[in-house]
Fold:
Amino acid sequence: MRKKYRKILYLIPFALIGIMIFFRYFPDTFFMNSPRYSLSRTEIIQKAERFLESRDFDIKKFEKIMTLRQDFAVNRYLQKNFDHAEVKRLYNEDFQFIDFWRIDYYLDLPRNIPQERYILSMTPCGEIFEFFHILPDTAAGAHISGEEAKEMSELFLKDRIRVDLEEFNLIKSSSRKLKNRTDHFFTWEERESRYEDAKFVIDVSVKGDEISGYHRFFEIPQKELKNYQQTESKSSFLSIISFIMSFIFLIFITVIFLRKYHIGEVGVKNGVILLAIIFILGIINTFMNIEIWSDSTSIGSMSRSQVILSMTFIFIIFVYLFQSLMAATGWAVGESYSRELWPEKLSSIDGLFKGHVFTSNAASSIISGYLASFILLGILTSIAMIGIKYFGAWTTAAYPLRYIDRPIIFLLPIINGLLVAIVNNIIYRLFFISILKRFLKSTIFAVIFSAFIYMIQPQGLSIFPESISLFSSFIIGLFMGYIFVKYDILTSMVTSFIVIAVVTGASIVYLESSYFKAHGFVVIGILFIPIIIAIVGFIRNKVFTYMGDDVPEHVKRISERARMTRELEIARRVQISLLPKEEPAIPGFEISGLCIPAQEVGGDYYDFVSVSSSSTGIAIGDVSGKGVPAAIYMTLTKGILQSYAEENISPLKVLSKVNKLMYKSIEKDTFVSMFYAILDHKNKTLTYARAGHNPAIVFKGSNNSCHFLESKGIGLGLEKGVIFDETIKEETMALEKGDVIVLYTDGFTEAMNSSLVEYGEDKFLKIIENNRNLSASELIARILEDIKKYVKGYPQHDDMTMVVIKTND
Amino acid sequence: MESFEVRRRDDGLISILYIKGYLDAHTAPKLEQEIQNLINEQNFKIIVNFNELSYISSAGLGVFMGFIENVREKDGDIKLTNMNPKIFRVFDLLGFPTLYDILDNENDAIKKFS
Structure:
């Protein structure tokens, strides 16, 4: 029982290395350990509200939404022009706004009508670098002069913002006279750029006689920005491809699902359970994110709350219902193929479905999942580090923090982790790898191919350029595929879950504010739960397997089918080994034989017997029926004939003895037709007897004539011996140079094409006549070729066997 | 899947089965069932009319083998009639004419029973 834990042991050193790399380099690489995040959400909001109060803005009638955003362009510019350590310093000094809190105060009105709004942007340590009071053009205000407005602005900048205007040039000023007020706009630019070609810019706007807007930002040269836009279009191209692929995948998987359902090889119950789990997780995920997802959406004249409601509905139905259907179908089909190929991949998760959580299978899967996740964390960190250091890659600052603006911070990394872990592993590993292995017959190609497919879906490290992100996705796909193949589906699900939860959840502990730290620790705490489950399972040491009736019907059917296929394959090999291994080497003669069963095994056979030093027995037989029963009787026939044939130079006597024993041994409704001949090497004669078999065909070399060897005789096993012995006759023919004798079974003459027309005796005679000058084996090959051309791929319905005897001198 | 049909007609104590189509491993059970029914009803004078049969395989031949002893023990027989030349050849090669009563037409068979 503890044996399976040995497979895990070798992971431990790699896991240790991986997690050390992660701890040491991840926070630094992704700028996580930044002192910027010193304020909690509440503190940020408090600061915002105090600010608004100081500007006499009445927030009471407004709703608010708070999101964490990034300045991608500035981020990219800095990472492009400065090295990593320098960038880190800049993010904590002049560029603290690189990710920022955006607070939007709005009225619950449709977005397409003019309305009052207040927008604030604050750095994570509370500095307000942008605010904007949006007023409808019709709102009343004063009309002051441009000069007055400018003085107001300069005073505001000097006193409130503490800007040293000596370092700035006023580069733009404009006014806009409205019916009820006049607005003024001013722009200052740094005299000298301190960071490459870009400069800091300050915009101030005055509406009426109030400072209504202020924005201090870092302006990137136009041509740079154009470069950045190019890369965006490339990634949307990829998104289109992945969308099309998902659609094709859905059709493909529905077809397979219906086919498998039809033959009773899908387990619907577990599929439904998964569908419910994923759907519920999706609903929770939607509710947690929908406000933010809807933030930039405007639907006609719908108010904000109506937009949020409709988006919720759209997401739940079109995204999560779709996703859960895909995953459930993917599970049903993937599971079905897996049970055939490698049923052990499902044993630990089977236990979970049945409610057995504390099993040793689950324990070993969970532990290996954790260890694998540590390795993957190390790999991803290394890719990011190497990419940044040697390939000019850049990341978005603090991308792991994407969830800290959600309502319950610790919940989303967990929910999202579960969703992605379950759905992705079902689709890319359980389904794709199993089905690819089934059809490509190679595990390695299946893993590689599945990694490619995984790569195209938009996910992976948030690292640019696209090529490095794709590469990291491909590596993840390969690694996860390897983990699935080496362990099982539960292991790979645990691995994915831990990686996502750690990167987007646990990493929050690196932030300065104790508020965020606490949430990070909650995530870490939750991640201990599976470990506890694993420890309990390990101690209990109870393996989960399906017992007897407990096995779901579809599982029984699949394993049965798989077992039968394997057994038949073995039977086929055994039967081939029972056919003659060599052709008899008789001076002056060529003898060749061929046997092709219609199914895996068949009831036809041919055999050569060494009767004496100067005579060889040649037998061809056809057991009634086909498949396994016929094959078993064929083996019996061979055995009986071989025993009677040695030292007995009369075919008639041999067949008579064979008949008596066969009649006693075999079932009433079975019989065997046989043609048995003994070739006398010295006298060059063929003595033969025919027990109900197709008459042999003879082409004489001397005059090209053709006749049949149709001596009297009934089939073997039909009658106990009285009538058999009365009827059977033995004949002898002299063999001359050029004589060709063909023994065959009716599988050849009865070969059918798709119009169900038989090949027929005439064609058969013709093809032999035309090719009788070839060697014995060449003649057989030629006949076979002609038959194959005739049937044009129509399935063979009877066993085909042939022996050709050629007299050469 | 090729088709196979059996139709039954009773003439006094004699039962005649008219077989039509393809008699092979798939369809043989149908014929087996019919003959078994006759035996269960104690009808042992059986004629099988091959007039409309297009094809027979070794599995089909085996059907008759399975019942012939039993039927003959009860003083009955299974007589085979109206075979076309191709079907007859199949029986002939195996030597069935020496074991079974194979006749040209149904009436001959009926006469032989009385």
In short: Residues 41-220 of chain A form one domain. Chain A has three domains: 2-29+225-545, 41-220, 582-807.
